[in-house]
Amino acid sequence: MEGNRYLLLGNGGHARVIRDLIGKLGGSVVYVFNDDTEYDPCFESGLPLIVAIGNNTFRKKVIEKVKHVMPVLVHPSAQLAADVLLGEGTIVFANAVIQAGAKIGRHCLVNANVVIDHEAEVGNFVNVYPNVYIGGAATISDLASIDPGTIISRMQKV
Description:
Elements: E1 5-9, H1 13-24, E2 28-33, E3 49-51, H2 56-65, E4 73-74, E5 79-80, E6 85-86, E7 91-92, E8 97-98, E9 103-104, E10 109-110, E11 115-116, E12 121-122, E13 127-128, E14 133-134, E15 139-140, E16 145-146, E17 151-152
Parallel strand pairs: 1-2, 1-3, 4-7, 5-8, 6-9, 7-10, 8-11, 9-12, 10-13, 11-14, 12-15, 13-16, 14-17
């Protein structure tokens, strides 16, 4: 990702964290759309777009209107097993740990200090807030928000 240039849709606190992450990856944000009403779906730049909206439902609604490449971003301090699968547009923040065989859906937010254990499955448009533990083989449904500090036992369905 070094040297990559991005468009950013969103300009709140979540967007500030993403801008910092992009900088740590050696990239830059070349344009910020303040909200989805400013974003023109026909905007053709060739640059990837990061949708920096924390609310799952609103993020999904915006992404369904957008026709852009939406890359995966992984913070340099995150630790991911070699066989982890990350869906399009998913962002993994500082100090997250994702263990062997875990699958993370599209457009998810895996926040700071999250641990997702082996073979856990996280659906699409999920926001896993900081300091969460998701046990091995647990399943998280689409659009779920997992509150900060939550512990989800292994094989549990949420």
